[in-house]
Design goal:
This protein has about 280 residues and is of the alpha/beta class. About 30% of the residues lie in helices and about 15% in strands. It is built from 11 helices and 12 strands.
């Protein structure tokens, strides 16, 4: 089954009223810490619970680990359990329109060993534009016990990326930032500009079509021309957030050996000895 589900699929399950899945709202807007929760309180999909990107899905930055480090797995498990999620509970995730937030939550659940986690194609905006049910009612939650079973093969750290540089092309690095950040012309959020040597460029937004829907697997293959499906792929961005839509796009296109460099560029440049490239490759 795809990692994406349609509006019709979700609506059918809401209307059935069996309560056998959790809908997670992870709307977020950079620069406005209250946007997500304020939007959720105003209206959300029936039965949805709110997940705060910054408070729940990122940790405080340190010397290494990047700008948006992954929280401790047990802390994540406690958060999800309090929202009524265990590893047997299907979860449908949405943000505004298939942005990095939904993909980040999707990836984290997968990393913790959750199998039935999906993203609502088109997001909240698509759902609202279609005139589908919305509510301001608070959702009653029955806490569950989320038992972590880490899928370490989904995560890459700085040492894995260093090894990739010596792999003679057996590992492909994909930079998900915009082209100016990749070439080093711009570094709006980091003190050092450029990219990891050997990385190819694939801006995450280029995988999304209008109205917040993921492009077809065929279109994704065109974006990732030259990436060998039989080789390991490591995806990064600035902080580990906007790489997640590319991880999703790769999986939807059939690439199975895909890892997220969670610390990403902001972690890479925290080590003075790491090499940096600029310009096109």
């Amino acid at each position: 089954m795809s990692n994406l589900v349609s509006q019709e699929w979700v609506l059918e399950r809401i209307q059935s009223g069996n309560g056998q899945f959790v809908i997670a709202d992870v709307r977020f807007q950079p620069g406005d810490a209250e946007y997500g929760i304020s939007s959720f309180i105003l209206q959300h999909l029936p039965g949805a619970v709110f997940v705060d990107l910054k408070k729940d899905l990122t940790d405080h930055p340190g010397q290494h680990g990047g700008r948006s480090p992954l929280p401790d797995p047990q802390r994540l498990a406690t958060t999800f359990g309090s929202l009524g999620i265990d590893r047997s509970t299907p979860v449908v995730i949405y943000d505004d329109d298939l942005r990095p937030e939904a993909a980040r939550l999707w990836w984290i659940l997968k990393y913790l060993g959750h199998e039935q986690t999906y993203i609502l194609d088109g997001g909240f905006k698509g759902w609202a534009a279609a005139g589908l049910p919305l509510t301001a009612e608070e959702t009653e939650v029955t806490p569950r016990n989320f038992e972590v079973e880490l899928r370490t093969e989904l995560l890459a750290d700085v040492n894995d990326v260093r090894a990739a540089l010596d792999s003679r092309g057996e590992v492909t690095l994909i930079d998900s930032r915009d082209r100016k950040q990749y070439t080093g012309e711009s570094a709006p959020l980091d003190p050092v500009a450029g990219h990891i040597p050997g990385a190819i460029h694939a801006f995450w937004k280029d995988g999304i079509q209008e109205h917040g829907r993921l492009k077809s697997p065929e279109a994704q293959h065109e974006r990732f021309t030259g990436v060998d499906p039989d080789h390991e792929v490591i995806v990064y961005c600035g902080s580990g957030l906007s790489a997640c839509p590319n991880v999703l796009a790769l999986q939807e296109a059939g690439y199975s050996n895909v890892r997220l460099y969670a610390g990403s560029w902001s972690d890479w440049i925290s080590y003075e000895e790491n090499p940096i490239a600029t310009g096109e490759e």
